[in-house]
Design brief:
By secondary structure, the protein is an all-alpha fold. It is 66% helix and 0% strand. The chain has two domains: 60 residues, no CATH class; 36 residues. It has four helices and no strands. The model has no long low-confidence stretch (mean pLDDT 77).
């Protein structure tokens, strides 16, 4: 979901803005016509449209929540908050972390067993 929503939003923005030039031209010819050789006042239309865009961005920014200090990495590589809470880690990630911890414990047991058998073998040979 983390990658899907930003990608979808980006493509939705592209879809909307792909027709922006035609919208501006239609608005300019309808609202700001000039004498026949010139056509329309596109600059005036663009100023009005951009004022609307700036107002929309300002309003959405003002009413939006700012989430400062959150980390988008599991190990807190951003250095802001460290490790995220367990509620934010998905079940699959928790399962993978548990399997990795279990494998690490098993590897440590195997190393201890090999070390103790090696020590026993060395002590038998030297005695």
């Amino acid at each position: 979901m983390r990658g899907t929503f930003p990608g979808f939003s980006y493509q939705l923005g592209n879809l909307i803005t792909a027709y922006a030039a035609q919208w501006e031209a239609a608005y300019a010819t309808k609202s700001f016509p000039l004498p026949l050789p010139a056509g329309a006042d596109y600059g005036h239309a663009m100023v009005i449209i951009m004022l609307g865009v700036f107002a929309a961005v300002f309003i959405l920014t003002a009413i939006g929540r700012e989430r400062r200090g959150i980390s988008f990495t599991e190990n807190g590589a951003s250095g802001v908050t460290g490790r995220p809470s367990s509620a934010s880690i998905s079940a699959a990630t928790r399962g993978a972390a548990a399997r990795a911890a279990s494998a690490s414990r098993n590897n440590a047991r195997v190393r201890r067993a090999r070390t103790s058998s090696t020590v026993r073998a060395i002590s038998v040979r030297t005695a």
